[in-house]
Amino acid sequence: MSTPETNPETRSNNPEQQIRDIAEVAAVEIITTAAVHLMSAAAVKCGLAEGNDAEELKDLDEARKLITALAGLITSAAPEVGSQHAGPLRDGLRALQLAFREASVIEDAPGQGPGEKLTGPVS
User: Fold this and answer.
1) Is residue 1 part of a domain?
2) Residue 38: Cβ within 10 Å count
């Protein structure tokens, strides 16, 4: 039998419980979750989504913004989350920067691609 404190529906509607739930999550987990969400959205906007509508979902202007935000998050958070977490995030960011470069009809100058002001040129 579930109580109001353990019932998932009640917990999600209880702001005090939501605050306690967030307080229990480590900062590194919140940072990596945010980065993964940015990566997923950027991948879709670069046209890397699965399915027949991948090309329709491509929006390189939006992808540029998401990749730049991701670069800022990873660059600033790397010292705090440690190399164990930062390394894979950097790899994902680089893959997205390369995917953007490949998907773009107009080539950015070296160091001018999305996030490259924060990460350096990607080739």
Assistant:
1) no
2) 24
How many domains does the chain fold into?
A: 1
**What range defines the domain where residue 19 resides?**
8-119
- Inter-helix orientation angle 60-81/83-103, to 10°: 160
Q: Rounded to an integer, what distance in angstroms lies between the CA atom of residue 100 and that of residue 114?
A: 8
The stretch 62-77 carries a mean pLDDT of 98
Q: How far apart are CA 32 and CA 80, in angstroms?
A: 11
Q: Which residues have C-beta within 8 Å of that of residue 30, sequence separation ≥ 6?
A: none
Does residue 41 belong to any structural domain of this protein? yes
Res 102 pLDDT > 60: yes
Q: What is the mean pLDDT of residues 10-27?
A: 83
pLDDT at 10 over 90: no
